[in-house]
Amino acid sequence: MASKAIFFSFFVVSAVCLSSLAGFAAADADDFDRFQIQGSVYCDTCRVQFVTRLSKFLEGAKVKLECRSRTNGTITLTKEAVTEKTGSYKMEVTGDHEEEVCELVLVQSPDSGCSDVSKEAYLRNAAKISLTANDGIVSHETRIVNPLGFMVQTPLAECPAAFKELGIVPDVTF
């Protein structure tokens, strides 16, 4: 009788463990189709298209995620976000976009004095992002995007000193 009770207890415990394991696996599979995108937007006060000590992060800047079909270029997904006080934004995207090219672009600056975006194709200020679990990235949920920057019309007078501190000589005249 005792052996039947032990066998029954073992069977119940095994069934509970297997069902919880199956639920865990199903939850993980669902998570692979949900991505948290994080990024930031700054004011490029030196017009060099990278963050310097003189850059300012912008609250209220708008960015847009666009995914396009690799085959015909049609837009398959569009989503916008607005930056917080620290200049950072977050957005959640669902679905696997392996067969698409996805990128974040600047839409609108909250600062009219810092609202230029390069028009040159080779200087396009956009951040490409992978939105698929089938890409070898260990973190399946969070994608951190490079900072995007609006530019001022005229660089600050302090920019050459900031470049010297970095050990670089820009290819522009101030």
UniProtKB/TrEMBL annotation:
Q: Which UniProt keywords apply?
A: Disulfide bond, Signal
UniProt xrefs under PROSITE patterns: OLEEI
Annotated Gene Ontology cellular components are: extracellular space
* Residue ranges that the Swiss-Prot or TrEMBL entry lists as coiled coil: none
What range does the record give for the signal peptide?
1-27
What InterPro entries does its record include?
A: Allergen_Ole_e_I_CS (IPR006040), Pollen_Ole_e1_allergen (IPR006041)
Q: Which family does it belong to?
A: Belongs to the Ole e I family.
Name of this chain's protein:
Pollen Ole e 1 allergen and extensin family protein
Cite the source lineage. Eukaryota, Viridiplantae, Streptophyta, Embryophyta, Tracheophyta
